[in-house]
C-alpha cells in the first residue's frame, strides 16, 4: 500500500464525509418529482441513494418509483440539476471539519477533493463554506470519464497534489463503500468517517482506521505516516 512520509497528500470525499448534504439533495429530488407529478421520497430513502453520483442517484430513484419512460427520466434529472447546482440551504459541515482541515494544512499536507458530486455544485458548496482555498485540487464526478470506485479520479487527485502519477502515495478520507473500493484499488490507506452514508458495517469495508469525530483525524493521519 502506497503511504508517504510527511507532508503527505490527503484527499477527501465530500458528501457524507466533509458535509451532510442529504437534506438539500432530498429537497431537490422531491421538488423535481413534485414538478412532474411523481410520488416523493423520504430523507432516509434519498440518503441511501447518495454516493455514486447523479446518474446512480436517479437510477436508484426511478427504479424505486418504477419510472421507466426515458423522456420522464431525462426531464426529472434536468429539473433536479437546475436546483442542485446551488443547493446549500440545508447542507452542513460535520462538526470539527474546518478545525481538522486547518491543522492538516498548517502541517504542510497538500489537500484535495475527490468526489462523485458534479464539479459545479462541488465548487459552489466549497465556496459557500469558505473552504475552497484549502484544497489544491478538486476532482468532481464529471471532471473525468471515470467515477469512483474506479481508481482514476483518486489517482488524478494525488497526481495534482504532487504525487507520482505512476505510483501515487497519499491518504484518502471517505465514508462509503465507493470510497473504500476506490482506496483499495489505488491502493492507498483509507481513513473511514463512520457518520456518513455507508450501508455496510464498518468491519466489512477495507480501511486503515475509522473515526466518528473530526477532532481525531489529525492524529490518525500522523498514525498512518509512522505505521
Automatic annotation (TrEMBL):
The lineage of its organism: Bacteria, Pseudomonadati, Pseudomonadota, Alphaproteobacteria, Rhodobacterales. It comes from Paracoccus amoyensis. GO terms for biological process: carbohydrate metabolic process; DNA repair. Belongs to the HAD-like hydrolase superfamily. CbbY/CbbZ/Gph/YieH family. One of its GO terms (cellular component) is cytosol. The keyword Lipoprotein does not apply. InterPro entries: HAD-like_hydrolase_sf, HAD-like_sf, HAD_2, HAD_sf, PGP-like_dom2, PGPase_prok. This is phosphoglycolate phosphatase. It holds the Pfam family HAD_2. GO terms for molecular function: phosphoglycolate phosphatase activity. Coiled coil: none annotated. It catalyses: 2-phosphoglycolate + H2O = glycolate + phosphate. Its EC number is 3.1.3.18. Keywords: Hydrolase. PANTHER family: PHOSPHOGLYCOLATE PHOSPHATASE. Its cofactor is Mg(2+). Pathway: Organic acid metabolism; glycolate biosynthesis; glycolate from 2-phosphoglycolate: step 1/1.
